[in-house]
Amino acid sequence: MQRNSTFLWLLVAFLLLLPTSLGRVLLDVAGGLMLVSLLIPLLLTGLGWIGWKVLQSKMITCQVCGSNLVSNTLSCPVCGAKISNDLGQDSSNSAPASSATIDVKAEDVGLNE
Ligand SMILES: [Zn+2]
């Protein structure tokens, strides 16, 4: 058992060291897997961030108790106060989504040498 696994690792190392097509395929597969495993968390983080921002843009604050609500509710589920529609329209008119800016910060990930 132990001997077999050692032989297997030697074979893999041998294939990787030799410039054969199989070694290149193995390297490509390993590189692709590494790239995917790095990209998936980044992608999920981006999607989560966008979802959070969309959710945040749809939230309003109750004037009476200060709890966060979805903007299309008519009354506060916490304290029962009526949510005035005028306030929602005013806030949406003063800051339309098309004029909103999103600050994107460029970060140096340290790939320079
Ligand atoms: Zn409330």
Please summarize what this structure is:
By secondary structure, this protein is mainly alpha-helical.
Architecture blueprint of SSEs:
Layout: H1 2-17, H2 21-57, E1 59-61, E2 68-70, H3 85-94
Antiparallel strand pairs: 1-2
The structure holds zinc ion.
What does this structure look like?
With 113 residues, the protein is mainly alpha-helical. The chain has two domains: 1-57; 60-94, no CATH class. The chain is 56% helix and 5% strand. It has three helices and two strands. It has helices at residues 2-17, 21-57, 85-94, and strands at residues 59-61, 68-70. It has a two-stranded antiparallel sheet. Helix 1 (2-17) crosses helix 2. It is elongated. The chain starts with a helix and ends in a 19-residue tail after the last helix. Bound molecules: zinc ion (ZN). Zinc ion is lined by residues 62, 64-65, 67, 76, 78-79, 81.
Task: List the defining traits of the structure above.
single chain; 113 residues; mainly alpha; 2 domains; 3 helices; binds zinc ion
Task: Kindly give the count of domains.
Answer: 2
Which regions are unreliable across 5 or more consecutive residues at pLDDT < 50?
87-92
Number of helices: 3
Helix content percent band: 55-70%
Distance between the termini: 42 Å
The fraction of residues in strands falls at: 5-15%
Order of helices and strands: HHEEH
The multimeric state of the shown protein is single chain
Rg is 27 Å
What is the 3D shape? elongated
Average predicted confidence as pLDDT: 80
